[in-house]
Every structure is written in structure tokens, then in C-alpha cells.
From TrEMBL:
Its EC number is 2.4.1.-. It comes from Cajanus cajan (Pigeon pea). Keywords: Glycosyltransferase, Transferase. The keyword Transferase applies. This is Glycosyltransferase. One of its GO terms (molecular function) is UDP-glucosyltransferase activity.
Length: 478
């Protein structure tokens, strides 16, 4: 029978893209493998995931997609939770019998060498154990975040209060001192369902055959060393760690039919390293008031900019676009005359821009980012320094890491309610583009870009790690 690898990503577009890029990487080494992807419909409306899957299906015949039954979460759950992760975990728990059945079905025609689970799907390790399949955890974020994930049971036993109540710095192996308020959002409240689910995932993680992490040794040396030395799992055996990144998107995003050509044509006419790019991931949104402050800050900064704008939200608890987004009315959302006054020097685009292409463009000199890990790696690979403005999930944690440990970003300061004033936007953008500190961040990200490229080359740390991973599937000892 043909040899196969099965992947089970969480239904988040950033996680899915990372796993698909891992598939491409694997196929360059073992093109004869049959790859199978277990696909879950997200528990909220989004078109990006289904469109992306359609594109990959048409362009990568080596990947077979298996669509699991749709799950509709109870209305009471939709209205009661503050964390979208709670919806995801309910969905993933509901999937367990379908995962089991699909794996049995695939095994009738293929020899499954390994099951690769998204980190949020770690509780499905029990299914792999039942079927006697080696299972690996794929970590679509960095080693620093992964160390905190593995260390969560230790923190849980150390403190009897929620992180949001402690107001202290946490000592997590290989991570800068972490303010409790900057821990990933679903970890803040220990009585919340998302916290309990993450804790259970962490408790299950030592049962994996190995950890595949989207990072590279030179970028996160201290975190990788801490995990490898067992410090993040002080009471358990630590499975092998395979740092195979940076894994970034190479797909041309043809599933999007919006303004990509307009953006890139406009950037072609801008001076080298002169444009500040503002984009906040696939889900990030702001209030109407915040959009106006950003606009005022950008205008006062005098810098060139490319800004992706979505329709505002009314619920500041989320900062998430959990539904299909209509095109925003820029004239009504932004200050009167803003578009005319900044014409030529700035460009505002609706909903989406081709981020990888933009960050690779010579005219980009800075990136105001939500600190999603994919965006961090894409900026590093493009050699673009960042201003860190987190919105949800683990992004506040990532901000501490990229500013304090990696020194590839500046810190965007918000008030207690999470609001950023126009004066702060202006000051940070100026600092990045004009100051000595901004110059140092630019130099450091340039070094990281070279290190990332070296890690992926023959003999590089990530290339070697991937070869070891492939050998482990074949039962070879390296």
C-alpha cells in the first residue's frame, strides 16, 4: 500500500496555511508520499478557508482533503464566551469519532506513517494511541509560545488565581519575564472553558512522538534550548523537537480577487524602504473610533503608508472578524478629506492585501502588525522591522518576545482599555522610520533574515531537523 501522512489542522486560516506549507516542504524531500488533510468547517462564517482549500486542491494533487461533518455550536455557547477558542475546542471535541473513523478508512488503502496534529488538536493524541499510530504535534507559532504551552500545568499548580488577577511577571523557561496580563488571551481566566481545554491539550502533549515547530534555531535559541533540555516539561519526558521553519506562505493567494495588483503597482512608484505597511491578519478589526485615530496618526507622521482597512466592530471584547466582511465605506469611516490629503503618499485598501508580496517589496520600510506568528516570520523573511500591535489570541505574548528577546519590533502602547491614541501611532511610526532605535531594529531584522535563509539551506539547522523528522517516520535512528 502507498505510504501516507495524515494532517489534522485547526480550522483557522493561519494554522491551515502553515500546515499546507509544511506539506509542500515534505513533498520536496519525499514526493512519493500521499498526504491527507482532515478539514473542519470553522464554527463561524468565513470564506477565506474554503477558498484557500479550493485553490490548494486544484494545484497540489498530492494532498487529499477529507471534509469532516459540519458542527453547529449551540446558540448559548456563541453568546456566552469571550474567546473564539472556546468555539474551536467544542468543535474539535465533537470531531473525535469522525477523526477515528476517517483514519480507519484511510488505513484501508494506505500505510499511515504518521499523524500530524495541530497543537490545538492535541487531545486527539488518544485516538492515535488507540490506532497505534505515531503522532506528532505541529506548532504553528514559535518556540517561546510553545514553551509557555508546555509549562502551563506547572504554572497552573504554582498559582491558584487566574493570570489576569496576579499582576506579576512569570518565569517561563527560555522566555523573557512575562507579565501575566500578556499571557495568551484564552489562558487569562482559569475558570473559562478555553483555559481548561488548553490545559488538557498541554497535559496530553508529552504523549506525542515529537514536536514540529515553525521556527529556527538562531531566532529562538534560548527557548529551543529550554524545551530540548526538559525545562518546559519538568515532570515529564520531552519528545524530540524539530524546528523546521521559517515556514511561510508561497502560494500567490489567487483565491483572493481583490486589490493585489493595485497595491503592488502603487508600491512600484514609491522610494526604497519608505512605506509603512499596516495589516492585522485574517481576523483583526477595529472600532470606528480606533480607525480614525490610526488615520490621524498616520497623516501627522508624514510617512508613506499602505493600510488595509476592514469594517469596524461594535464589540471591543473581541477585535475579531468572525463573519464575512463587506467592503468598508472609506469616506464615511476615515476623517473628512483624509484620502484626498494623503493621496499619492498613502494608499488605503479594503479588507485584504497580498501580505507576502508586500513584505517582499523593496519599497516597504516598516510593518505595523498584530504579531500573529505567520506575520512575524513573513516580516523577518522580508527583512522588515515591525511595530507590534496585538489584538487577540497569543499576540500580546508574541509582542513581548519580538520586542524584548528578538529585538525586531517596537512596542505600540495602548491604554488600559486597549485603545491607541493618534499621537502614539504618529510617534511609533516616526520612531521606526526615522530614529536611531528604529535603525537598530532594522539592522537586527536584517540579520534575522539572513539567519532564516541559512537555516533552510542544505546543512542549515531547519534542513537538518526536517531530514531527522522524515527518518523518524521511517523508523530510522539518526
Amino acid at each position: 500500500m502507498k505510504e501516507a501522512i495524515v494532517f489534522y489542522p485547526a480550522p483557522l486560516i493561519g494554522h491551515l496555511i502553515s500546515i499546507v506549507e509544511l506539506c509542500k516542504l515534505i513533498l520536496t524531500h519525499q514526493p512519493s508520499l500521499s498526504l491527507h488533510m482532515l478539514i473542519t468547517t470553522p464554527p463561524y462564517d468565513t470564506s477565506s478557508t474554503s477558498n484557500y482549500i479550493s485553490t490548494i486542491s486544484a494545484t497540489l494533487p498530492s494532498i487529499t482533503f477529507h471534509n469532516l461533518p459540519t458542527f453547529t455550536p449551540p446558540h448559548t455557547l456563541l453568546s456566552s464566551t469571550l474567546n473564539h477558542e472556546t468555539l474551536l475546542f467544542h468543535l474539535l471535541h465533537h470531531n473525535h469519532p469522525h477523526i477515528h473513523q476517517t483514519l480507519i478508512s484511510i488505513s484501508k488503502t494506505h500505510t499511515i506513517q504518521a499523524l500530524i496534529l495541530d497543537i490545538l488538536c492535541s487531545q486527539s493524541l488518544s485516538i492515535a494511541s488507540q490506532l497505534n499510530l505515531p503522532a506528532y504535534i505541529f506548532v504553528p507559532f514559535g518556540a517561546s509560545g510553545f514553551s509557555s504551552f508546555l509549562y502551563l500545568p506547572t504554572l497552573h499548580d504554582t498559582y491558584n488565581k487566574s493570570f489576569k488577577e496576579l499582576n506579576i511577571f512569570l518565569n517561563i523557561p527560555g522566555v523573557p519575564p512575562m507579565p501575566t496580563c500578556d499571557m495568551p488571551k484564552p489562558m487569562l481566566e482559569r475558570n473559562d472553558e478555553s483555559y481548561k481545554s488548553l490545559l488538557n491539550c498541554s497535559l496530553a502533549a508529552p504523549k506525542a512522538a515529537g514536536y514540529i515547530v515553525n521556527t529556527f534555531e538562531a531566532f529562538e535559541a534560548s527557548s529551543i534550548k529550554a524545551i530540548s533540555n526538559g525545562l518546559a516539561l519538568p515532570n515529564s519526558f520531552t519528545p524530540p523537537l524539530y524546528c523546521v521553519g521559517p515556514i511561510v506562505s508561497t502560494t500567490t493567494n489567487q483565491y483572493q480577487n481583490t486589490c493585489d495588483h493595485e497595491c503592488l503597482r502603487w508600491m512600484d512608484s514609491q522610494p526604497s524602504k519608505s512605506v509603512v505597511f499596516l495589516c492585522f491578519g485574517s481576523l483583526g478589526v477595529f472600532s470606528r473610533e480606533q480607525l480614525r485615530e490610526i488615520a490621524l496618526g498616520l497623516e501627522k507622521s508624514g510617512q508613506r503608508f499602505l493600510w488595509v482597512v476592514r469594517n469596524p466592530i461594535n464589540d471591543q471584547n473581541h477585535n475579531l472578524a468572525l463573519g464575512i466582511q463587506e467592503d468598508p465605506d472609506l469616506e464615511s469611516l476615515l476623517p473628512k478629506g483624509f484620502l484626498d490629503r494623503t493621496k499619492g503618499k498613502g494608499l488605503v485598501v479594503k479588507n485584504w492585501a497580498p501580505q507576502v508580496a508586500v513584505l517582499s517589496h523593496n519599497s516597504v520600510g516598516g510593518f505595523v502588525s498584530h504579531c500573529g506568528w505567520n506575520s512575524v516570520l513573513e516580516a523577518v523573511c522580508g527583512g522588515v522591522p515591525m511595530i507590534a500591535w496585538p489584538l487577540y489570541a497569543e499576540q500580546r505574548f508574541n509582542r513581548v518576545v519580538v520586542v524584548e528577546a528578538m529585538e525586531v519590533a517596537l512596542w505600540m502602547h495602548e491604554n488600559a482599555a486597549g485603545f491607541v491614541a493618534a499621537s502614539e501611532v504618529e510617534e511609533r511610526v516616526r520612531e521606526l522610520m526615522e530614529s536611531e532605535r528604529g535603525k537598530q531594529v532594522r539592522i537586527r531584522v536584517g540579520v534575522a533574515k539572513d539567519e532564516a535563509k541559512a537555516a533552510l539551506m542544505d546543512g542549515g539547522s531547519s534542513h537538518v531537523a526536517l531530514e531527522k523528522l522524515l527518518k523518524s517516520w521511517n523508523g530510522q535512528v539518526s
